[in-house]
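User: For my dataset I need records formatted as: sequence, then structure tokens, nothing else. Please produce one.
Assistant:
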Amino acid sequence: MHKVKTETLMDENLEKLRDTFSNVRDLAILELLIYTDMKIGELTRLNISDMDYINKVHMHALGEQCL
């Protein structure tokens, strides 16, 4: 099994990255990835119905791979 080394972005670099987005949608996606530690694959499977806006909790059903 091969482990992928990931890097953490520092606050200064995150600000520079945010400044490159002019589209509100893309900036919202970036913020969602940053603050939830969500993976891109999880984001692509996310539906509006998965969100609980009243309690501000992400509702995520576990797939078979998580059992």
